[in-house]
Amino acid sequence: MRTILPSQASAASGLAFLLCLFCHSVNAQEVDIDPQLADTVYFTRNSSQLSSEGQGALRLQAAWLTNHSAVTCALEGHTDEWGSPEWNIKLGQKRAETARAFLIHLGIAPHRLTAISYGEDRPRALCKMEQCWSYNRRVTTIITGGYQ
């Protein structure tokens, strides 16, 4: 998987919606995954509003999920380290629920999607710069079951 900065991320970025990121037990080359799908949606500081790029990524996920109707997913909300741990858990949950609501609006059944927050506890990048913090303000879609 190649790394794409949040400022470069878009629905067509090529960031793969890879099962190896989701269940850690499947080789991504062995499954039918569209390489145009993004598994991560990024947010601005203290926001749970979806950007147009985030909406595009979720539209691609919805199309894939529509074609794989047995798949269930967790939408994991994350934040940067700014704010209290309590605030970051709430913000991460709002982000995850925003992504979940958007997928439901696109026709994905609610029972297939769960929203969870990890707040600042699972950073993708570790450093004290905006570039790192922007990597951590995200929702990542994780396949939790139903893919064969």
What does this protein structure show overall?
The protein has 148 residues and is of the alpha+beta class. It has one domain: OmpA-like domain (60s Ribosomal Protein L30, Chain: A, 2-Layer Sandwich). It contains four helices and four strands; from the N terminus they run H-E-H-E-H-E-H-E. Strands 1-4-2-3 form a four-stranded mixed beta sheet. Strand 2, helix 3 and strand 3 form a beta-alpha-beta unit.
Mean pLDDT: 79
Gyration radius, to the nearest Å?
A: 14 Å
Strand-residue proportion:
15-25%
User: What is the number of E strands?
Assistant: 4
Largest sheet: 4 strands, mixed
Number of helices: 4
Q: What is the molecular shape? A: elongated
**Which CATH class?**
Alpha Beta
Q: In CATH, what is the homologous superfamily?
A: OmpA-like domain
Write the layout of secondary structure elements.
Elements: H1 19-22, E1 40-42, H2 52-67, E2 72-78, H3 85-105, E3 113-119, H4 130-136, E4 138-145
Parallel strand pairs: 2-3
Antiparallel strand pairs: 1-4, 2-4
In short:
The protein is of the alpha+beta class. Helix content is 32%, strand content 17%.
Keywords:
148 residues; alpha+beta; 60s Ribosomal Protein L30, Chain: A; four-stranded mixed sheet; 4 helices; 32% helix; elongated; disordered N terminus
